[in-house]
From TrEMBL:
Transmembrane segments: none annotated. It comes from the Bacteria. Pfam families: Esterase. SUPFAM superfamilies: alpha/beta-Hydrolases, E set domains. The keyword Signal applies. PROSITE patterns: PROKAR_LIPOPROTEIN. Residues 1-21 form the signal peptide. Keywords: Signal. InterPro entries: AB_hydrolase_fold, Esterase-like, Ig_E-set, Mycobacterial_A85_antigen. The keyword Isomerase does not apply. This is Esterase.
Length: 371
């Protein structure tokens, strides 16, 4: 994938998300409730049925507070100070449904909201807010059998250290000698290996799909993709070689030696969101003998000429939000189908470069894998 195109896609997506949050939408319903991602017992931030967010911060000795929403924190909602020392404010318009990062700028300094839980994004721990989605049931915590997400440390000679990954094993794993396919699932720029289980709810999505009989159970491996070794704005300088070595020469052998996997190409997939999609694009082309399934989630496209003379993938999955110029994905799918590839596209309605797009994408991708 062209890195310049990737940078443009990300910039446009972030700008669209910010503009949406700042667009007036008429009268505001006063049915605000605490965000699902608040710290225990904290009333703010709050969200209402229209998708507006309201913030309230106690800072009696401060002069100015602005809430910056979205990856990178563009723009902001200014809060007004009351005589009681509380700063309060509401977004100028409804936000997209789903998860969003944000932080506070207080008198020029950057801080997290003490009322909200924190999530790793923008290369730092950011506050998180959840705008309940109409279709949130597919990633909700339900009374179904649950798999496990465990932290592992695997040796990496190439980086001269032990590296961390999180591994999702489906319900029933280890109770028999059954072996499972594996999806290697990558985060985006500014995030790390915690993103897909924390922000993405990947384990709950899988638990629910398995309980509904919609997927063949498989293992998911999530590790740090070294995306943050480059600063935002310099993504074009990123080189895949170091991470490719860690993933293909060190992590995959470790997983196959320590988990009940089916260790062959037909039972191994790679997917990634945003810059993780860029990594997936490069690694699957470089190591087509290792992966049978490729998925780019808001992470670019494949072209037939790139895939020529390489081991043919069993599936190519391309997705994005409807606010991310989906015509690029749809046109690529048509071209790939004409060239004889099995390819599936998905466009998430009314979302941009954000986690509801990627949660929905995983929901659509998972049933297609390993069949």
């Amino acid at each position: 994938m062209n890195l310049k195109c990737m940078t443009i896609i990300l910039a446009v997506a972030f700008a669209c998300t910010f503009c949406h949050a700042q667009t007036s939408s008429g009268s505001i319903n006063e049915d605000f409730r605490p965000s699902p991602l608040n710290q225990p017992g904290q009333e703010y931030p709050q969200v209402n049925s229209q998708g507006y967010a309201r913030f309230r911060i106690f800072a009696p000795h401060s002069d100015s507070i602005r809430v910056s929403l979205g990856l990178g924190g563009q723009g902001g909602t200014r809060l007004s100070k009351g005589s009681d020392g509380f700063f309060t404010g509401t977004t100028a318009g409804p936000m997209d449904e789903g998860f969003h990062y944000y932080h506070l700028t207080i008198d020029g300094g950057v801080f997290n909201d003490p009322g909200a839980l924190n999530f790793y994004g923008s290369t730092r721990w950011e506050s998180g807010i959840e705008i309940p989605a109409k279709d949130q049931d597919f990633y909700a915590l339900k009374a179904v059998p649950h798999g496990h997400v465990q932290q592992i440390l695997f040796p990496s000679k190439s980086t001269n250290t032990s590296r961390r990954a999180f591994v999702y094993t489906p319900p029933g794993y280890g109770k028999s000698s059954r072996r499972y396919p594996v999806l290697y699932l990558q985060h985006g720029w500014g995030e790390d290996e915690t993103a897909w289980s924390n922000q993405g709810r990947a384990n709950l999505i899988m638990d629910n799909l398995i309980a509904e009989g919609k997927v063949k159970p498989f293992i998911i491996v999530m590790t740090y993709g070294m995306t943050n070794e480059v600063k935002w704005g310099s993504i074009r300088s990123f080189k895949i070689d170091e991470f490719q070595t860690v993933l293909t020469d060190e992590l995959i052998p470790y997983i196959d030696n320590n988990f009940l996997t089916v260790a062959n190409r037909e039972n191994r997939a790679m997917a990634g969101l945003s810059m993780g999609g860029m990594e997936t694009h490069s690694i699957t082309l470089n190591k087509s003998d290792l992966f049978g399934y490729y998925a780019l989630l808001s992470g670019g496209i494949f072209k037939p000429e790139e895939l020529k003379d390489k081991a043919k993938p069993r599936l190519i999955f391309l997705s994005c939000g409807s606010k991310e110029r989906p015509e690029g994905v749809l046109n690529a799918v048509s071209t790939l189908k004409e060239a004889g590839y099995h390819v599936v596209s998905y466009v998430s309605e009314n979302t941009a470069h954000e986690f509801l797009t990627w949660r929905r994408s995983l929901r659509e991708l998972a049933p297609l894998l390993f069949n």
